Amino acid sequence: MFALYCTLNRLENKGKTMLDIKQIRENPQEVEKKLQTKEEGVSVQNILKLDGEIRSLKIEAEELKNIRNQSAKEVGEKKRQGEDVTLLLKSMEGAKEKISTLDHKCNELEAQLKFELGCLPNLPEEGIKASLDPADNVEIKTFGEKPSFSFEPKNHLELNEKLHLFDFKRGAKIGGSGWPAYRGMGARLEWALINFMIDTHVANGFEQWIPPLLGRSDILFGSAHLPKFEDQLFKLRDKDHDLYLIPTSEAVLNGIHYDEILKEEELPLKYTAYTPCFRREAGAAGAGERGLIRTHQFNKVEIFCVTRPEESEKIYNEMVESAETILQALNIHYRSMLLVTGDMSFASAKTIDLEVWLPGQNRYYEVSSISNCTDFQARRSKIRFKRGEGKPELAHTLNGSGLATSRLMVALLENNQQEDGSVTIPPVLHKYLGGVSQLGCSPAGSAD
Protein backbone atom coordinates (compact mmCIF):
# COMPACT_ATOMS: atom_id res chain seq x y z
CA MET A 1 0.00 0.00 0.00
CA PHE A 2 2.94 2.34 0.65
CA ALA A 3 4.15 1.79 -2.92
CA LEU A 4 0.72 2.78 -4.21
CA TYR A 5 0.77 5.89 -2.02
CA CYS A 6 4.06 6.90 -3.64
CA THR A 7 2.59 6.19 -7.09
CA LEU A 8 -0.44 8.37 -6.41
CA ASN A 9 1.88 11.06 -5.12
CA ARG A 10 3.47 11.12 -8.58
CA LEU A 11 0.22 11.26 -10.52
CA GLU A 12 -0.48 14.23 -12.73
CA ASN A 13 -3.61 16.39 -12.37
CA LYS A 14 -2.94 16.95 -8.67
CA GLY A 15 -6.10 19.01 -8.28
CA LYS A 16 -8.52 16.16 -8.78
CA THR A 17 -10.41 14.83 -5.79
CA MET A 18 -12.94 12.06 -5.11
CA LEU A 19 -15.75 13.27 -2.93
CA ASP A 20 -16.07 17.04 -3.10
CA ILE A 21 -13.85 18.42 -0.32
CA LYS A 22 -16.11 21.47 -0.10
CA GLN A 23 -19.06 19.23 0.75
CA ILE A 24 -17.02 17.56 3.50
CA ARG A 25 -15.94 20.95 4.92
CA GLU A 26 -19.48 22.33 4.95
CA ASN A 27 -21.34 19.22 6.20
CA PRO A 28 -18.80 16.91 7.88
CA GLN A 29 -21.24 15.20 10.22
CA GLU A 30 -23.83 14.56 7.51
CA VAL A 31 -21.21 13.22 5.08
CA GLU A 32 -19.64 11.00 7.74
CA LYS A 33 -23.01 9.61 8.77
CA LYS A 34 -23.86 8.68 5.16
CA LEU A 35 -20.44 7.13 4.59
CA GLN A 36 -20.82 4.98 7.70
CA THR A 37 -23.92 3.40 6.18
CA LYS A 38 -21.57 1.97 3.52
CA GLU A 39 -18.50 1.26 5.64
CA GLU A 40 -18.66 1.03 9.41
CA GLY A 41 -16.15 3.23 11.19
CA VAL A 42 -15.40 5.58 8.29
CA SER A 43 -14.26 8.96 9.54
CA VAL A 44 -13.56 12.29 7.84
CA GLN A 45 -11.86 13.83 10.88
CA ASN A 46 -8.28 13.32 9.69
CA ILE A 47 -9.28 14.60 6.25
CA LEU A 48 -10.60 17.79 7.83
CA LYS A 49 -7.40 18.08 9.88
CA LEU A 50 -5.21 17.66 6.78
CA ASP A 51 -7.36 20.10 4.81
CA GLY A 52 -7.04 22.68 7.58
CA GLU A 53 -3.27 22.27 7.79
CA ILE A 54 -2.91 22.59 4.01
CA ARG A 55 -4.98 25.77 3.91
CA SER A 56 -2.98 27.27 6.80
CA LEU A 57 0.31 26.44 5.08
CA LYS A 58 -0.91 27.99 1.83
CA ILE A 59 -1.99 31.17 3.62
CA GLU A 60 1.39 31.41 5.38
CA ALA A 61 3.26 30.78 2.11
CA GLU A 62 1.14 33.36 0.29
CA GLU A 63 1.84 35.97 2.97
CA LEU A 64 5.57 35.30 2.70
CA LYS A 65 5.41 35.57 -1.10
CA ASN A 66 3.67 38.93 -0.77
CA ILE A 67 6.36 40.12 1.67
CA ARG A 68 9.08 38.82 -0.68
CA ASN A 69 7.53 40.61 -3.64
CA GLN A 70 7.24 43.84 -1.65
CA SER A 71 10.86 43.47 -0.51
CA ALA A 72 11.95 43.01 -4.13
CA LYS A 73 10.37 46.37 -4.98
CA GLU A 74 12.15 47.98 -2.02
CA VAL A 75 15.49 46.50 -3.15
CA GLY A 76 15.02 48.05 -6.59
CA GLU A 77 14.12 51.40 -5.11
CA LYS A 78 17.04 51.43 -2.63
CA LYS A 79 19.51 50.43 -5.35
CA ARG A 80 18.36 53.34 -7.48
CA GLN A 81 18.97 55.60 -4.50
CA GLY A 82 22.37 54.04 -3.83
CA GLU A 83 21.36 52.62 -0.44
CA ASP A 84 22.65 49.38 1.15
CA VAL A 85 20.31 46.39 0.47
CA THR A 86 22.30 43.67 2.25
CA LEU A 87 19.78 43.13 5.05
CA LEU A 88 16.83 43.15 2.65
CA LEU A 89 18.49 40.56 0.38
CA LYS A 90 19.26 38.38 3.40
CA SER A 91 15.64 38.69 4.52
CA MET A 92 14.40 37.75 1.03
CA GLU A 93 16.69 34.70 0.95
CA GLY A 94 15.27 33.58 4.30
CA ALA A 95 11.73 34.05 3.01
CA LYS A 96 12.57 32.07 -0.12
CA GLU A 97 13.85 29.13 1.95
CA LYS A 98 10.80 29.28 4.23
CA ILE A 99 8.44 29.35 1.22
CA SER A 100 10.24 26.32 -0.27
CA THR A 101 9.86 24.44 3.03
CA LEU A 102 6.17 25.33 3.27
CA ASP A 103 5.52 24.32 -0.36
CA HIS A 104 7.27 20.99 0.16
CA LYS A 105 5.28 20.30 3.33
CA CYS A 106 2.08 21.34 1.57
CA ASN A 107 2.75 18.94 -1.32
CA GLU A 108 3.31 16.07 1.11
CA LEU A 109 0.07 16.79 2.96
CA GLU A 110 -1.87 17.19 -0.31
CA ALA A 111 -0.67 13.75 -1.45
CA GLN A 112 -1.75 12.27 1.90
CA LEU A 113 -5.11 14.06 1.67
CA LYS A 114 -5.64 12.79 -1.85
CA PHE A 115 -4.84 9.24 -0.76
CA GLU A 116 -7.27 9.38 2.18
CA LEU A 117 -10.00 10.97 0.05
CA GLY A 118 -9.41 8.20 -2.48
CA CYS A 119 -10.23 5.63 0.21
CA LEU A 120 -13.66 7.13 0.91
CA PRO A 121 -16.59 5.44 -0.88
CA ASN A 122 -19.23 7.25 -2.87
CA LEU A 123 -22.19 8.66 -0.98
CA PRO A 124 -25.40 6.61 -1.36
CA GLU A 125 -28.29 8.10 -3.24
CA GLU A 126 -31.14 9.55 -1.20
CA GLY A 127 -33.83 6.95 -0.48
CA ILE A 128 -31.51 3.92 -0.49
CA LYS A 129 -32.13 1.78 2.59
CA ALA A 130 -29.37 2.33 5.16
CA SER A 131 -28.02 -1.00 6.41
CA LEU A 132 -24.73 -2.90 6.54
CA ASP A 133 -26.54 -6.25 6.33
CA PRO A 134 -27.07 -7.74 2.81
CA ALA A 135 -30.04 -9.64 4.21
CA ASP A 136 -31.87 -6.30 4.16
CA ASN A 137 -31.62 -5.94 0.36
CA VAL A 138 -35.01 -5.21 -1.16
CA GLU A 139 -36.55 -7.52 -3.77
CA ILE A 140 -38.16 -5.33 -6.42
CA LYS A 141 -38.93 -7.82 -9.19
CA THR A 142 -38.91 -11.51 -10.13
CA PHE A 143 -39.04 -13.24 -13.49
CA GLY A 144 -40.25 -16.80 -14.01
CA GLU A 145 -40.38 -19.52 -11.41
CA LYS A 146 -37.82 -21.77 -9.79
CA PRO A 147 -37.61 -24.97 -11.86
CA SER A 148 -39.09 -28.10 -10.37
CA PHE A 149 -37.49 -31.48 -10.99
CA SER A 150 -38.81 -35.04 -10.66
CA PHE A 151 -35.26 -36.04 -9.72
CA GLU A 152 -32.46 -34.74 -7.50
CA PRO A 153 -30.84 -31.94 -9.53
CA LYS A 154 -27.09 -32.01 -9.99
CA ASN A 155 -24.73 -29.07 -9.65
CA HIS A 156 -22.59 -28.00 -12.61
CA LEU A 157 -19.58 -29.99 -11.37
CA GLU A 158 -21.62 -33.19 -11.31
CA LEU A 159 -23.09 -32.43 -14.73
CA ASN A 160 -19.59 -31.85 -16.04
CA GLU A 161 -18.60 -35.42 -15.18
CA LYS A 162 -20.67 -36.55 -18.16
CA LEU A 163 -20.65 -33.45 -20.37
CA HIS A 164 -16.88 -32.67 -20.21
CA LEU A 165 -17.40 -28.91 -20.66
CA PHE A 166 -14.64 -27.78 -18.31
CA ASP A 167 -11.30 -29.16 -17.16
CA PHE A 168 -10.68 -27.76 -13.71
CA LYS A 169 -7.76 -30.08 -12.92
CA ARG A 170 -5.77 -29.10 -15.98
CA GLY A 171 -6.66 -25.44 -15.46
CA ALA A 172 -5.28 -25.70 -11.92
CA LYS A 173 -2.17 -27.44 -13.26
CA ILE A 174 -1.52 -24.41 -15.47
CA GLY A 175 -2.38 -21.52 -13.16
CA GLY A 176 -3.39 -22.96 -9.81
CA SER A 177 -6.78 -23.08 -8.15
CA GLY A 178 -9.31 -20.57 -9.50
CA TRP A 179 -8.13 -20.57 -13.13
CA PRO A 180 -10.75 -22.58 -15.06
CA ALA A 181 -10.27 -24.14 -18.50
CA TYR A 182 -13.22 -24.50 -20.90
CA ARG A 183 -13.17 -27.27 -23.49
CA GLY A 184 -15.24 -28.56 -26.42
CA MET A 185 -18.89 -27.64 -26.14
CA GLY A 186 -18.16 -25.80 -22.91
CA ALA A 187 -15.92 -23.38 -24.81
CA ARG A 188 -18.45 -23.11 -27.65
CA LEU A 189 -21.34 -22.51 -25.27
CA GLU A 190 -19.35 -19.83 -23.43
CA TRP A 191 -18.60 -18.11 -26.74
CA ALA A 192 -22.25 -18.40 -27.76
CA LEU A 193 -23.33 -16.64 -24.56
CA ILE A 194 -20.79 -13.85 -25.09
CA ASN A 195 -21.86 -13.28 -28.70
CA PHE A 196 -25.55 -13.36 -27.80
CA MET A 197 -25.06 -10.78 -25.05
CA ILE A 198 -22.98 -8.46 -27.23
CA ASP A 199 -25.58 -8.69 -30.02
CA THR A 200 -28.34 -7.87 -27.52
CA HIS A 201 -26.61 -4.78 -26.16
CA VAL A 202 -25.63 -3.53 -29.62
CA ALA A 203 -29.28 -3.88 -30.68
CA ASN A 204 -30.17 -1.84 -27.58
CA GLY A 205 -27.96 1.05 -28.67
CA PHE A 206 -24.60 0.26 -27.07
CA GLU A 207 -21.38 0.68 -29.07
CA GLN A 208 -19.02 -2.31 -28.90
CA TRP A 209 -15.42 -1.84 -27.79
CA ILE A 210 -12.45 -4.18 -27.43
CA PRO A 211 -10.41 -2.39 -24.73
CA PRO A 212 -6.95 -3.14 -23.29
CA LEU A 213 -6.76 -5.79 -20.58
CA LEU A 214 -4.23 -3.79 -18.55
CA GLY A 215 -4.38 -0.27 -17.19
CA ARG A 216 -2.12 2.28 -15.54
CA SER A 217 -2.54 3.16 -11.87
CA ASP A 218 -4.12 6.54 -12.65
CA ILE A 219 -6.76 4.86 -14.82
CA LEU A 220 -7.68 2.39 -12.07
CA PHE A 221 -7.58 5.21 -9.55
CA GLY A 222 -10.08 7.03 -11.73
CA SER A 223 -12.45 4.06 -11.79
CA ALA A 224 -12.03 3.78 -7.96
CA HIS A 225 -10.39 0.35 -8.00
CA LEU A 226 -7.31 2.03 -6.50
CA PRO A 227 -6.23 2.59 -3.81
CA LYS A 228 -8.97 0.71 -1.96
CA PHE A 229 -8.62 -2.64 -3.76
CA GLU A 230 -4.88 -2.69 -4.44
CA ASP A 231 -4.48 -6.09 -2.74
CA GLN A 232 -7.16 -7.70 -4.93
CA LEU A 233 -5.52 -6.81 -8.25
CA PHE A 234 -2.97 -8.70 -10.33
CA LYS A 235 -0.01 -6.54 -11.36
CA LEU A 236 2.56 -6.46 -14.16
CA ARG A 237 5.66 -4.69 -12.89
CA ASP A 238 9.13 -4.76 -14.45
CA LYS A 239 11.65 -2.22 -15.71
CA ASP A 240 9.36 -1.28 -18.61
CA HIS A 241 5.84 -1.65 -17.20
CA ASP A 242 3.79 -0.74 -14.15
CA LEU A 243 0.31 -1.98 -15.00
CA TYR A 244 -2.68 -3.79 -13.52
CA LEU A 245 -4.72 -6.60 -15.05
CA ILE A 246 -8.29 -5.33 -15.18
CA PRO A 247 -10.74 -6.63 -12.55
CA THR A 248 -13.55 -5.61 -14.92
CA SER A 249 -13.73 -3.76 -18.23
CA GLU A 250 -15.53 -0.97 -16.34
CA ALA A 251 -12.07 0.24 -15.30
CA VAL A 252 -10.80 0.75 -18.83
CA LEU A 253 -14.12 1.84 -20.34
CA ASN A 254 -14.13 4.59 -17.72
CA GLY A 255 -10.57 5.37 -18.78
CA ILE A 256 -11.53 5.98 -22.42
CA HIS A 257 -12.54 9.56 -21.59
CA TYR A 258 -10.01 10.17 -18.81
CA ASP A 259 -9.27 13.90 -18.51
CA GLU A 260 -11.56 14.86 -21.41
CA ILE A 261 -14.16 17.57 -21.88
CA LEU A 262 -17.02 16.21 -23.98
CA LYS A 263 -19.64 18.15 -25.89
CA GLU A 264 -23.15 17.99 -24.46
CA GLU A 265 -24.50 16.74 -27.80
CA GLU A 266 -22.15 13.73 -27.62
CA LEU A 267 -23.98 12.43 -24.55
CA PRO A 268 -25.09 9.90 -23.59
CA LEU A 269 -22.25 7.55 -24.54
CA LYS A 270 -23.31 3.90 -24.27
CA TYR A 271 -20.57 1.28 -24.51
CA THR A 272 -20.39 -2.52 -24.26
CA ALA A 273 -17.34 -4.75 -24.17
CA TYR A 274 -16.38 -8.35 -23.60
CA THR A 275 -13.20 -9.02 -21.62
CA PRO A 276 -11.79 -11.65 -19.33
CA CYS A 277 -11.55 -10.23 -15.80
CA PHE A 278 -8.87 -10.92 -13.20
CA ARG A 279 -9.24 -10.74 -9.43
CA ARG A 280 -6.72 -11.92 -6.85
CA GLU A 281 -9.27 -12.36 -4.07
CA ALA A 282 -11.39 -15.39 -4.96
CA GLY A 283 -13.56 -15.20 -1.85
CA ALA A 284 -14.49 -17.67 0.81
CA ALA A 285 -13.79 -21.35 0.25
CA GLY A 286 -16.58 -23.91 0.50
CA ALA A 287 -18.73 -26.33 -1.45
CA GLY A 288 -20.91 -23.48 -2.73
CA GLU A 289 -17.90 -21.63 -4.14
CA ARG A 290 -16.38 -24.44 -6.22
CA GLY A 291 -16.07 -24.73 -9.98
CA LEU A 292 -17.16 -21.61 -11.85
CA ILE A 293 -18.92 -19.93 -8.92
CA ARG A 294 -15.91 -17.87 -7.80
CA THR A 295 -12.64 -17.76 -9.73
CA HIS A 296 -9.56 -15.60 -10.30
CA GLN A 297 -10.36 -15.32 -14.01
CA PHE A 298 -13.84 -15.07 -15.49
CA ASN A 299 -15.52 -13.73 -18.62
CA LYS A 300 -17.86 -10.78 -18.55
CA VAL A 301 -19.74 -8.56 -20.96
CA GLU A 302 -19.88 -5.04 -19.53
CA ILE A 303 -22.17 -2.12 -20.23
CA PHE A 304 -20.92 1.37 -19.41
CA CYS A 305 -22.42 4.83 -19.90
CA VAL A 306 -21.37 8.47 -19.61
CA THR A 307 -24.23 10.93 -19.40
CA ARG A 308 -25.51 14.27 -18.17
CA PRO A 309 -26.63 14.26 -14.50
CA GLU A 310 -30.28 14.92 -15.38
CA GLU A 311 -30.35 11.84 -17.68
CA SER A 312 -28.63 9.59 -15.19
CA GLU A 313 -31.70 7.76 -13.86
CA LYS A 314 -33.18 7.28 -17.34
CA ILE A 315 -29.95 5.73 -18.65
CA TYR A 316 -29.71 3.61 -15.51
CA ASN A 317 -33.14 2.10 -16.16
CA GLU A 318 -32.17 1.38 -19.78
CA MET A 319 -29.08 -0.48 -18.59
CA VAL A 320 -31.08 -2.60 -16.13
CA GLU A 321 -33.58 -3.40 -18.87
CA SER A 322 -30.83 -4.41 -21.32
CA ALA A 323 -29.31 -6.81 -18.78
CA GLU A 324 -32.71 -8.25 -17.86
CA THR A 325 -33.54 -8.83 -21.55
CA ILE A 326 -30.76 -11.41 -21.70
CA LEU A 327 -31.98 -13.43 -18.73
CA GLN A 328 -35.54 -13.28 -20.01
CA ALA A 329 -34.49 -14.49 -23.47
CA LEU A 330 -32.63 -17.39 -21.84
CA ASN A 331 -35.78 -18.06 -19.76
CA ILE A 332 -33.81 -18.21 -16.50
CA HIS A 333 -35.61 -17.43 -13.26
CA TYR A 334 -34.09 -14.40 -11.50
CA ARG A 335 -34.87 -11.72 -8.99
CA SER A 336 -33.90 -8.02 -9.00
CA MET A 337 -32.56 -6.74 -5.71
CA LEU A 338 -32.12 -3.09 -4.74
CA LEU A 339 -29.03 -3.19 -2.55
CA VAL A 340 -28.81 -1.54 0.84
CA THR A 341 -26.06 1.02 1.37
CA GLY A 342 -23.61 -1.43 2.96
CA ASP A 343 -23.85 -3.98 0.13
CA MET A 344 -23.23 -1.54 -2.72
CA SER A 345 -19.90 -1.28 -4.47
CA PHE A 346 -17.35 1.29 -3.33
CA ALA A 347 -18.06 3.67 -6.24
CA SER A 348 -21.82 3.20 -6.40
CA ALA A 349 -24.59 5.54 -5.26
CA LYS A 350 -27.30 3.06 -6.28
CA THR A 351 -27.08 -0.62 -7.27
CA ILE A 352 -29.50 -3.25 -8.51
CA ASP A 353 -28.30 -6.85 -8.58
CA LEU A 354 -29.82 -9.49 -10.84
CA GLU A 355 -29.64 -12.83 -9.07
CA VAL A 356 -30.28 -16.16 -10.81
CA TRP A 357 -31.46 -19.30 -9.09
CA LEU A 358 -28.91 -22.15 -9.06
CA PRO A 359 -30.64 -25.46 -8.28
CA GLY A 360 -27.32 -27.23 -7.63
CA GLN A 361 -26.51 -24.73 -4.87
CA ASN A 362 -30.13 -24.23 -3.79
CA ARG A 363 -29.64 -20.49 -3.63
CA TYR A 364 -29.51 -17.26 -5.65
CA TYR A 365 -26.27 -15.89 -7.07
CA GLU A 366 -25.59 -12.48 -8.61
CA VAL A 367 -24.87 -12.45 -12.36
CA SER A 368 -25.24 -8.72 -12.89
CA SER A 369 -24.66 -5.68 -10.73
CA ILE A 370 -25.80 -2.40 -12.30
CA SER A 371 -24.58 0.75 -10.56
CA ASN A 372 -25.04 4.48 -10.91
CA CYS A 373 -21.77 6.06 -9.77
CA THR A 374 -23.08 9.63 -10.25
CA ASP A 375 -20.07 12.01 -10.52
CA PHE A 376 -17.77 9.91 -8.28
CA GLN A 377 -15.66 8.30 -11.03
CA ALA A 378 -15.96 11.38 -13.25
CA ARG A 379 -14.46 13.55 -10.51
CA ARG A 380 -11.53 11.15 -10.05
CA SER A 381 -11.04 10.80 -13.83
CA LYS A 382 -11.82 14.43 -14.76
CA ILE A 383 -14.55 13.37 -17.20
CA ARG A 384 -16.45 16.56 -17.97
CA PHE A 385 -18.81 18.02 -20.55
CA LYS A 386 -19.79 21.51 -21.70
CA ARG A 387 -23.23 22.90 -22.40
CA GLY A 388 -22.60 25.31 -25.27
CA GLU A 389 -20.15 27.97 -24.10
CA GLY A 390 -20.70 27.21 -20.42
CA LYS A 391 -18.16 26.01 -17.89
CA PRO A 392 -17.20 22.30 -17.88
CA GLU A 393 -19.39 20.15 -15.61
CA LEU A 394 -18.77 16.68 -14.20
CA ALA A 395 -20.54 13.92 -16.09
CA HIS A 396 -22.22 10.89 -14.51
CA THR A 397 -20.90 7.38 -15.13
CA LEU A 398 -22.86 4.14 -14.86
CA ASN A 399 -21.76 0.54 -15.20
CA GLY A 400 -23.21 -2.94 -15.14
CA SER A 401 -22.48 -6.58 -15.84
CA GLY A 402 -24.27 -7.53 -18.95
CA LEU A 403 -23.63 -10.32 -17.90
CA ALA A 404 -20.87 -12.28 -16.10
CA THR A 405 -20.78 -15.58 -17.96
CA SER A 406 -19.35 -17.93 -15.35
CA ARG A 407 -22.36 -17.97 -13.04
CA LEU A 408 -24.68 -17.51 -16.01
CA MET A 409 -23.18 -20.70 -17.47
CA VAL A 410 -23.87 -22.48 -14.17
CA ALA A 411 -27.47 -21.21 -14.19
CA LEU A 412 -28.00 -22.29 -17.79
CA LEU A 413 -26.70 -25.81 -17.12
CA GLU A 414 -28.37 -26.40 -13.78
CA ASN A 415 -31.76 -24.94 -14.69
CA ASN A 416 -31.98 -26.83 -18.00
CA GLN A 417 -30.69 -30.22 -16.89
CA GLN A 418 -32.57 -33.41 -17.66
CA GLU A 419 -32.80 -36.58 -15.60
CA ASP A 420 -30.26 -38.38 -17.80
CA GLY A 421 -27.68 -35.64 -17.20
CA SER A 422 -28.15 -33.94 -20.56
CA VAL A 423 -28.85 -30.21 -20.84
CA THR A 424 -31.33 -28.46 -23.12
CA ILE A 425 -29.97 -25.29 -24.72
CA PRO A 426 -32.26 -22.22 -24.92
CA PRO A 427 -33.43 -21.55 -28.51
CA VAL A 428 -31.83 -18.08 -28.67
CA LEU A 429 -28.40 -19.74 -28.57
CA HIS A 430 -28.98 -22.38 -31.27
CA LYS A 431 -27.78 -20.17 -34.15
CA TYR A 432 -24.52 -19.50 -32.33
CA LEU A 433 -23.92 -23.26 -31.98
CA GLY A 434 -24.65 -24.38 -35.51
CA GLY A 435 -28.10 -25.65 -34.56
CA VAL A 436 -27.02 -27.70 -31.52
CA SER A 437 -29.98 -27.76 -29.15
CA GLN A 438 -28.92 -30.20 -26.44
CA LEU A 439 -25.75 -31.28 -24.65
CA GLY A 440 -25.04 -34.82 -23.58
CA CYS A 441 -26.95 -36.99 -26.06
CA SER A 442 -26.35 -38.03 -29.64
CA PRO A 443 -29.52 -37.50 -31.73
CA ALA A 444 -29.38 -35.00 -34.62
CA GLY A 445 -29.29 -31.39 -33.47
CA SER A 446 -27.50 -32.26 -30.24
CA ALA A 447 -23.98 -32.90 -29.07
CA ASP A 448 -22.18 -35.31 -26.78
TrEMBL record:
<comment type="similarity">
    <text>Belongs to the class-II aminoacyl-tRNA synthetase family. Type-1 seryl-tRNA synthetase subfamily.</text>
</comment>
<dbReference type="GO" id="GO:0004828">
    <property type="term" value="F:serine-tRNA ligase activity"/>
</dbReference>
<keyword id="KW-0547">Nucleotide-binding</keyword>
<feature type="binding site">
    <location>
        <position position="401"/>
    </location>
    <ligand>
        <name>L-serine</name>
    </ligand>
</feature>
<keyword id="KW-0067">ATP-binding</keyword>
<comment type="subunit">
    <text>Homodimer. The tRNA molecule binds across the dimer.</text>
</comment>
<feature type="binding site">
    <location>
        <begin position="248"/>
        <end position="250"/>
    </location>
    <ligand>
        <name>L-serine</name>
    </ligand>
</feature>
<dbReference type="InterPro" id="IPR002314">
    <property type="entry name" value="aa-tRNA-synt_IIb"/>
</dbReference>
<dbReference type="InterPro" id="IPR033729">
    <property type="entry name" value="SerRS_core"/>
</dbReference>
<dbReference type="InterPro" id="IPR045864">
    <property type="entry name" value="aa-tRNA-synth_II/BPL/LPL"/>
</dbReference>
<keyword id="KW-0648">Protein biosynthesis</keyword>
<dbReference type="Pfam" id="PF00587">
    <property type="entry name" value="tRNA-synt_2b"/>
</dbReference>
<dbReference type="InterPro" id="IPR042103">
    <property type="entry name" value="SerRS_1_N_sf"/>
</dbReference>
<keyword id="KW-0963">Cytoplasm</keyword>
<feature type="binding site">
    <location>
        <begin position="279"/>
        <end position="281"/>
    </location>
    <ligand>
        <name>ATP</name>
    </ligand>
</feature>
<feature type="coiled-coil region">
    <location>
        <begin position="47"/>
        <end position="112"/>
    </location>
</feature>
<dbReference type="InterPro" id="IPR015866">
    <property type="entry name" value="Ser-tRNA-synth_1_N"/>
</dbReference>
<feature type="binding site">
    <location>
        <position position="302"/>
    </location>
    <ligand>
        <name>L-serine</name>
    </ligand>
</feature>
<dbReference type="InterPro" id="IPR010978">
    <property type="entry name" value="tRNA-bd_arm"/>
</dbReference>
<comment type="pathway">
    <text>Aminoacyl-tRNA biosynthesis; selenocysteinyl-tRNA(Sec) biosynthesis; L-seryl-tRNA(Sec) from L-serine and tRNA(Sec): step 1/1.</text>
</comment>
<feature type="domain" description="Aminoacyl-transfer RNA synthetases class-II family profile">
    <location>
        <begin position="155"/>
        <end position="426"/>
    </location>
</feature>
<keyword id="KW-0030">Aminoacyl-tRNA synthetase</keyword>
<keyword id="KW-0175">Coiled coil</keyword>
<dbReference type="InterPro" id="IPR006195">
    <property type="entry name" value="aa-tRNA-synth_II"/>
</dbReference>
<protein>
    <recommendedName>
        <fullName>Serine--tRNA ligase</fullName>
        <ecNumber>6.1.1.11</ecNumber>
    </recommendedName>
</protein>
<feature type="binding site">
    <location>
        <begin position="366"/>
        <end position="369"/>
    </location>
    <ligand>
        <name>ATP</name>
    </ligand>
</feature>
<dbReference type="InterPro" id="IPR002317">
    <property type="entry name" value="Ser-tRNA-ligase_type_1"/>
</dbReference>
<keyword id="KW-0436">Ligase</keyword>
<dbReference type="Pfam" id="PF02403">
    <property type="entry name" value="Seryl_tRNA_N"/>
</dbReference>
<comment type="function">
    <text>Catalyzes the attachment of serine to tRNA(Ser). Is also able to aminoacylate tRNA(Sec) with serine, to form the misacylated tRNA L-seryl-tRNA(Sec), which will be further converted into selenocysteinyl-tRNA(Sec).</text>
</comment>
